[in-house]
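Exam revision sheet. Question 4 asks you to relate a sequence to its structure. Input first:
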Amino acid sequence: MVPTYPQVGSSNPATAAPPVARPSTKPCVVPLFTNLEFADFNLKSFDYTPPANCPGPWAKVVFTADFTVTAGLQYDRTAAFYLGQANIYYGTTAEPRSALSPSWHVERDVTDLSAIFESAQTGEANLGNYVGVYDGVDYNGIIYANATLEFYPADFRNPAPRVPDMVVPVNGTGGDAGTLNTGADQITQTLNLPENVESAYLDVIAQSQIGDEFWYFCVPNDQTANLESCGNTAFRETEVWLDGNPAGVAPVYPWIFTGGIDPFLWEPIPGVQTLDLVPYRVDLTPFAGVLADGGTHTVAVSVFNANGYFLATANLLVFIDHGTAKVTGGLISNTLASAPTPEITENIMTATGPTYTGTIDTSSTRDFTIRGGERVARARGDDGDREGGVRERSDVRCEPDDGHPERTAAEHGGREHDDEAGLGGDDGGAALPVSADDRLFVCGERGFEPGSDDDSEAGLRPERKDERGRVAAVREQRA
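Answer key, structure tokens:
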């Protein structure tokens, strides 16, 4: 077992990220696999059974893994673990040296994936690793790994948070991360969701590989030969689609893997997220009314300017309204363009030699608003009559200031209204009456995550219930 905290004097990889905070309750630890060997490109399967002594709901679920690579020569490899085809871990491995067998520990909070932990599942460990002689070079580093899930029971000091009711994997055709060679390639998932969806989020990872590994150093195609670099410019963007229409965007993180362009980020402290890639959370709640219409829908992920290639995987997190069997609503407006329009300014000069010097400036700005709404029937009131209600909320995306995310409050206000009230929007329809409910939002690396100054409300939470039941949300997202 690799120590959780860095050891003084050790060359083992150690990240700057703190361990996951744990509740005070005693966890039930479920091993997923032990000393699993990775010396080829075959998928490794494993079985999972929920902990009998720790039934849910849980205060927290933590994934942990320990890796070791034998001393010798080996490249960094991509490691991806799935349960029921839902990704529970994604990262890369450290490279060994002839006299160093590196070992490291990773962990992540996977409480939002609790829905897949409630029943027995088949898992898959995908960590392709070539061992053998190639072009006269002996790649002999063998990778071993252990993985567990820690289930922390809830009690009055450690209450169980509200978690998504459904987790829907979005992968390639093989059931794991799909390959995106060009901007036209997509990973897709067909959806047939319940008719009481109230909110949805997509946790997405798009990992740059091979020709796109150093995409942030790529240049316009007219300069690839001159500057001996990759093409399609130094701009990439993860794009989310619903039924062929743009539904959200996410940045592509500029990972530097061990063995990459900066030797000072190989060991002992690798680059940020190198050993544990963090998914970006895209808020799809404006489309909740669409997803709840009883029809078949398709969610897809692509990467703008992909140039051979990206690996992409995602989990769709769905909250349903337990107070009603059906909600009605739809999309009010969507100004997100199908593609960004990055600005490229070339300042390349040719000298004798030939020698090319100068700069290439790349920038891109997105400004869009997505608004959607739902109307639900509330639970019976004291007079036995069924009431209806809607709520409108305007979530103003915070703008980063020199890389530091800001916090902004979502503004609310209004009144209840009856079943005959309609959904109004920017087209001149009646404004939506709402129930007052001030909330605080955090703009961060994972996207919008509803939160609060009250720890009991911290984290991912859809709208609160009032005494008579759940009311619906109409969300406006600006980016």
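Marking note for examiners. The chain has a mean pLDDT of 82.
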